[in-house]
Every structure is written in C-alpha cells, then in structure tokens.
Amino acid sequence: MKNIVLFGPPGSGKGTQAEVLKEKYNLKHISTGDVFRYNIKNETDLGKLAKSYMDHGDLVPDEVTINMLEAEVEKNSDAHGFIFDGFPRTESQADALDQFLAKKGMSINGMVALEVSEDLLIKRLLNRGKTSGRIDDQDESKIRNRFNEYQTKTAILQEYYAKQNKYFGVNGVGSIEDITERISKVIDDL
Ligand code: B4P
Q1: Residues in the chain with pLDDT < 70?
Q2: pTM for the full model?
Q3: Percentages of the chain per state (helix, strand, coil), in multiples of 5
Q4: Rounded Cα–Cα distance for residues 153 and 73 (Å)
Q5: What is the number of other CB atoms lying within 10 angstroms of the CB of residue 28?
Q6: What average pLDDT does the structure give for the chain?
Q7: Which of 53, 65, 68, 153 has its Cβ near the most Cβ atoms within 10 Å?
C-alpha cells in the first residue's frame, strides 16, 4: 500500500497530476479542494461554510477539513492506497493525518512537492479563471492571498516531512507528461 501526499503551492498542478497518477498506481485520489467544491455546488452546510473562506482565498478551518478528510478515507476502506491532494495544508492537519493513519496501521510513504515559480503560477491560475468559474482564480489579489496562506501556514510542512526523510521536491515546470515521469521516479522508489 502506498500513501502519497501531493504538495505544492496553489496552481502547481497537484490536481492535474493526481488524475494521471491515480490510474497509473491504482490509488484513491482525495482532493480536499474538490470535495469542498462538490459541497458548494450542492449547497450543503459544509459547502456554505467552505465557500465563505475559499472565495477569499483563505484556508478552511482545520477541524472542518480534518473531519471531512477522515470521512473520505473511511468511505474508501478497500483502497490500495491514497493520493492526498491539497491535504495536509497546516501542521495540525499533518499531525491529525499521521495519528489517523497510525490507528489504521498505515502511514505516509512520501510527500512529493511540485516546485513552480510564483509568476508562472499566477499566469496559470488567471488563465484557468477565464473558463473554470472559480472565484478564487479570477482576481490577482485573491491569488496573492492564497500564496500568503501557503507561505505562512503550509510551506512549513516541507520541513515536517523532511525530518521524517519523506520530502521529495520535483520540478513542476514542463509538459504534464514530463512532470508525471519525474514524480513516478520518486513513487517507484517509495
Ligand atoms: P485546491 O483545490 O487544492 O487547488 P489549487 O491549489 O488551486 O490547485 P492545484 O495545485 O491542484 O492545481 P491544478 O492541478 O488545478 O485548493 C483550493 C482552495 O480550497 C484553497 O485555497 C482552500 O481555500 C481550500 N482548501 C483545499 N484543501 C484545504 C485544506 N487542506 N485546508 C484548508 N483549506 C483547503 O492546476 C492549476 C492550473 O495549472 C490548471 O489550469 C492546470 O491546467 C494548469 N497546469 C497544471 N499543470 C501544468 C503544466 N505542467 N503546465 C502548464 N499548466 C499546467
């Protein structure tokens, strides 16, 4: 069983790569962003709460996100392993994930981090915002707030996983296929 955390700043291609990797390695892909967007679309209470944060580019509170992630894992107890995309995003989320997996006799094998410059990320996100309808992609100040959230709350997780010898940085610039190949080299060795 392989459990991978796909990591990187907003727009670095986590969701794009997870779509390919889940097929290649037969893993269950859990994107906390996608689960929130599904709830927003269906106007659930969780969706209404998440929207009030996501539309501004803020992180959704830990407690809500952790409970939601655990429920998604429980729903897929027959999976051969997981790709966690966009989770954890804070140290509390990382602690909660480690504890939750340990109770199940599981652990994270590695964190694969996509490295892309901020200028390129802004271009990608504004470009997606033209067609995706995502409010958080349409305005440069909201995108900058997402980077700020990343720098202040999320980037620290590089060290968190490096201390466990589980951090693997990958160049996230290039064709989608080339990047998949770079990530695969890491996953194959885990
Ligand atoms: P997410 O849905 O996780 O998404 P993201 O960071 O915007 O993007 P991702 O890295 O997946 O990039 P993608 O492949 O789509 O988060 C959205 C929000 O949800 C957060 O701001 C937060 O509010 C909330 N949230 C989610 N998880 C949370 C958590 N754990 N705790 C608290 N809050 C949470 O790619 C982006 C664009 O780049 C696409 O248009 C794609 O086509 C393009 N692209 C991808 N790869 C490319 C390449 N190689 N070259 C050129 N373009 C590429």
Answers
A1: none
A2: 0.94
A3: 60, 15, 30
A4: 23
A5: 18
A6: 97
A7: 65
